[in-house]
């Protein structure tokens, strides 16, 4: 849960305990994504269980750690969605599209997110 809180704080730029559409859009842009009109609002709405227009830590945690959907194909659908999300996240890091995340690519993304890590740090992260 500590890691999830750390990720949440990255999104919650102003520290008010809520992720707004502007904050989510900012993180997506920093990662190289260009969300279309309404796409960020849709993402917030998926997580916003109390419908206040924001995502708090409990909603963020429930979305990312909640149980998979039930039903005949629930597990298969969840597995396919997870694989798609993982591939999309991978390609955001793989700037040269060679199928590998290199230290300089990780360094670039972390810098865009405000992390101050050296290329040597990034190389150690990848090699571990």
TrEMBL record:
- Could you name the domain of life of the organism this protein comes from? Eukaryota
> Which UniProt keywords are listed?
Calcium, Metal-binding, Repeat
**Which InterPro entries does the entry mention?**
EF-hand-dom_pair (IPR011992), EF_Hand_1_Ca_BS (IPR018247), EF_hand_dom (IPR002048), EF_hand_pair_protein_CML-like (IPR039647)
User: SUPFAM superfamilies from the xrefs?
Assistant: EF-hand (SSF47473)
Record carries keyword Calcium: yes
Q: Which Pfam families match?
A: EF-hand_7 (PF13499)
Signal sequence region? none
Q: Which parts of the sequence belong to the EF-hand domain? A: 1-34, 35-70, 81-116
GO terms, molecular function: calcium ion binding
Q: Does this entry carry the keyword rRNA-binding?
A: no
Physiological role = Potential calcium sensor.
Q: Tell me the protein's name.
A: EF-hand domain-containing protein
């Amino acid at each position: 849960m500590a890691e999830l809180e750390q990720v949440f704080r990255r999104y919650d730029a102003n520290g008010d305990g809520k992720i707004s559409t502007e904050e989510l859009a900012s993180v997506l842009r920093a990662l190289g994504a260009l969300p279309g009109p309404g796409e960020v609002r849709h993402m917030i709405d998926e997580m916003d269980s109390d419908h206040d227009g924001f995502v708090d830590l409990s909603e963020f945690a429930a979305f990312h750690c909640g149980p998979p959907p039930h039903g005949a194909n629930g597990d298969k659908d969840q597995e396919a969605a997870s694989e798609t999300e993982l591939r999309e996240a991978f390609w955001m890091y793989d700037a040269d599209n060679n199928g590998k995340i290199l230290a300089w690519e990780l360094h670039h993304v972390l810098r865009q997110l405000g992390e101050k890590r050296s290329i040597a740090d990034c190389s150690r992260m990848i090699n571990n």
